[in-house]
Amino acid sequence: MKISARNQIAGTITQITKGATTSHVGIDIGGGTIITASITNEAVAELKLKVGEPATAIIKASDVMVGV
């Protein structure tokens, strides 16, 4: 599949924590860095995500906010 987003970071799924409607998916991108995505449980099932499998974090955002 081709997509327009240029911020694509390959890694390995380290965890999938399912909630009532949303799952948190951890992707190890190397160097001790984990990116966590919140996606629907339905998306996890449709993508057949499994711990240990390769995955790509695709970041498409017009703003990034940081607070302390």
UniProtKB/TrEMBL annotation:
A Pfam family matched in the record: TOBE
Positions of the Mop domain: 2-68
InterPro entries reported for this sequence: Mo/tungstate-bd_C_term_dom, Mop_domain, Transp-assoc_OB_typ1
PROSITE patterns tied to this protein: MOP
GO biological process, one term: molybdate ion transport
Matches recorded under SUPFAM superfamilies: MOP-like
Taxonomic superkingdom: Bacteria
Protein name stated in the entry: Mop domain-containing protein
